[in-house]
Specification:
There is one protein chain. The chain is α/β, with parallel strands linked by helices. About 50% of the residues lie in helices and about 10% in strands. Helix 9 crosses helix 10, helix 10 runs parallel beside helix 12 and helix 11 packs across helix 12. This is Holliday junction branch migration complex subunit RuvB. It holds the Pfam family RuvB_N.
Length: about 350
């Protein structure tokens, strides 16, 4: 087993493939529509991310006091933690319009120039997945962020000329799930950088209660806690699980959600008490039952569960690693002692001895 098979895959997984799962952090069409109604409208209403909220509040209040455009903002963190929502709040707090686009949509410098040249003074430009923007557009963005100017190239070859185009002051809000892929010159041009953390269960309970109120769903404290505990630290997943539990409660109960109803509904949707779904458990079961806990190569593990290599690596593994159920090693993927316990299995003697050396257990 060589490192190439266990190293991280740099390609992006399509949002469509991820959004098929109930616990996927990506948003699909239905999520986008519902999130628009559930999104908080100001920083006071926004739940969680206390440090980022406090720091951002200072940045925005200072900008308003000076009568100036807010500094450029970079938000990093996993999908579903509120980066898009915060960008909309920034625009609302600055009483400015917002333009939303994404890095993959900007493949040429001309694409970016067209967007920048149409911005109004003070407008907020939200650029999602900014690390996936093309290099020529990225280099144009440097000058736009720093000097509010871009050079538009007219013509080709020796006769090409650069025409400077002045831009009105604007605020760029960049969002990324992979901050390490941003080049330093781009990162350094942001006046404020905030890292979004996964939510604690108590914070997610507040999210669930708030969303239930907006959806006119009756839910008690235990029911909210049950949903929050299976939401993988992500508000978007908590809202999605809430909607599916609401459906179950309306069809098979009296419409009110308590712990028993929430647990029964999530059992139907194959989301267990730690938030693992069918794919997560399939990966763990293959690793434990077929390969004795590993180590096993990523490609071999993907074949065993009948999924693409990228699906296992980018959809299932991050959560399993974060939960301490799986480890990536130079020799391959290895199940931790907690994985055996979670599935109610006893590790074979040779696996236990091998894991003692890997985990010190």
């Amino acid at each position: 087993m060589n490192w190439d098979e266990t190293g991280p895959h740099t390609g992006g997984l399509s949002d469509e493939r991820s959004a098929d799962r109930l616990v996927a952090a990506g948003a699909d069409g239905e999520d986008t529509a519902v999130e628009a109604a559930l999104r908080p409208k100001d920083l006071e209403e926004f739940v969680g991310q206390e440090k980022v909220r406090a720091q951002l509040d200072l940045v925005l209040k200072a900008a308003r006091a000076r009568g100036a455009t807010a500094d450029h903002v970079l938000l990093s963190g996993a999908p579903g933690l509120g980066k898009t929502t915060l960008s909309m709040i920034i625009a609302a707090e600055m009483n400015a319009p917002i333009r939303i686009t994404s890095g993959p949509a900007i493949q040429h410098a001309g694409d970016l120039a067209a967007i920048l040249s149409s911005l109004q003074e003070g407008e907020v430009l939200f650029l999602d997945e900014i690390h996936r923007m093309s290099r020529p557009a990225e280099e144009m963005l440097y000058m736009a962020m720093e000097d509010f100017r871009v050079d538009v190239i007219v013509g080709k070859g020796p006769g090409a000329t650069a025409i400077p185009l002045e831009l009105p002051p604007f605020t760029l809000v960049g969002a990324t799930t992979r901050a390490g892929l941003l080049p330093p010159p781009l990162r350094d041009r942001f006046g404020f950088t905030g890292h979004m953390e996964f939510y604690a269960p108590r914070e997610l309970e507040r999210v669930v209660h708030r969303s239930a109120g907006l959806l006119d769903v009756a839910i008690d404290t235990d029911g909210a806690a049950e949903i929050a505990g299976r939401s993988r630290g992500t508000p978007r997943i908590a809202n999605r699980l809430l909607r599916r539990v609401r459906d179950y409660a309306q069809v098979r109960a009296d419409g009110r959600i308590d712990r028993e109803i929430a647990a029964a509904a999530l059992k139907v949707y194959e989301v267990d008490e730690r938030g693992l779904d069918r794919l997560d458990r399939a990966v763990l079961e293959a690793l434990l039952k077929l390969f004795g806990g590993g180590p096993v190569g990523l490609s071999t593990l993907a074949v065993a569960v009948g999924e693409e290599r990228e699906t296992v690596e980018e959809v299932a593994e991050p959560f399993l690693v974060r939960e301490g159920l799986l480890a990536r090693t130079p020799r391959g993927r290895v199940a931790t002692p907690a994985a055996w316990g979670h599935l109610g299995l006893v590790p074979p003697q040779h696996a236990a001895k091998g894991q003692q050396g890997l985990f010190g257990a």
